[in-house]
Please model this.
Amino acid sequence: MRPLDLTLMYWKTTCRSCRASHARSWLIAASPLLVLSIVCASNVSTAEPKGRRQKPLVPLPNVVAAPKDNPTTPEKVLLGKQLFFDPRLSGNNTINCATCHLPDKAFTDGLAKPKGVGGKELTRNTPTLLNVGYFDKLFWDGRAKSLEEQVLGPIQSPDEMNQNLDELEKELNAVPGYVDQFQKVFGTEATRDGIAKALAAFQRTLVTGPSPFDRYLGGDEKALSYSAKRGLELFTGDADCVRCHRGPLLSDGKFYRLGASFGDAGLAATTSKKEDTGKFRTPSLRNVAQTGPYMHDGSMQTLGDVVAFYYRGVPTTTSDGLPLDIQPLFGQSFSEISDLVTFLESLTGEPPMITPPELP
Ligand code: HEC
Ligand code: HEC
Model:
């Protein structure tokens, strides 16, 4: 008898044994005459992620909760806004936060990678600050646990704003307008703690309004086009994007290795664990149509490029043999990519109107 013809085939359908409605590889062991067995490869290799059956997609809440020791007040937000736009925060007084997080570019810069004060290119893409207050862990590798903790990073980083905090405090305390405001808001002179808290409070207000997708979730059937609805169906079904892109931000806030590019340690830089190499936080997809280029290294120009990446036959391991957290999708038609892109475009909500304030 001839040995079994073992053929690995990919089939896109609902898995009858695990009842998951998503694309999975099916292992078909066949003899020349007879299909002997069909095994859903997802049963063999991956467990159902926890919480999968919970409502994965929900509207964005209107307000970001503030920590107890830094309540959001209008005066603090105004102070934070001034600091955000103030070049005094950089070592040579030439750049401010808005140099890289531009309000009219959804608080990104439209570049693959930005340049800091010295003109040196940074290694990662500038993330949007829209809705950033909803994240528990910040940066592509999650190394900061709060906006208060995060903000002193770029100010001091030699490649970003290259500012010494003692000098910054001195500089701001020489400006009467700032001295008054810090007194009013914090009851102290300008301190690094107050600077961080005010900038954090300002960033918590950068919340977008309802997108067509939110209106659809709220019951407005007409808010999404036919193509966007098909995209949503793929997103939550066969393409299984919700495995990671879920919750109000369409991000689970966790870390994965997709293999978009190699060479950046990612999460491993914080944890020093080899298995975290090349893992990055799932980005928010809110207003994603406005935040390109994409991925931690800005290596993908358009949403079409990103979605095509998920459909492409990416390798299943890195060159170090670390497994990737995604398997290539096998679509039945090219329209799937454009439907997913149309859905992603429906996630754009009205950004807050922020114009540069007058500086003290
Ligand atoms: C030179 C460009 C540049 C400047 C100036 C800059 N940033 Fe950033 N920002 C970046 C880049 C690049 C990252 C991603 C870095 C990483 O993940 O390692 C980032 C990340 C962040 C994040 C994390 C976002 C997230 O989704 O986790 C916040 C918040 C942030 N910046 C706020 C600020 C504030 C506030 C200032 C001013 C004090 C500032 N940035 C100045 C480029 C810049
Ligand atoms: C295993 C978890 C996971 C799955 C499944 C997944 N993503 Fe992602 N997604 C990520 C991570 C992590 C990144 C960032 C990767 C990087 O920067 O290297 C990302 C990046 C993106 C980006 C770029 C966002 C930005 O701001 O740069 C888009 C768009 C996106 N994903 C859409 C999708 C779509 C559409 C699907 C389904 C076809 C999907 N994702 C499936 C985890 C996932």
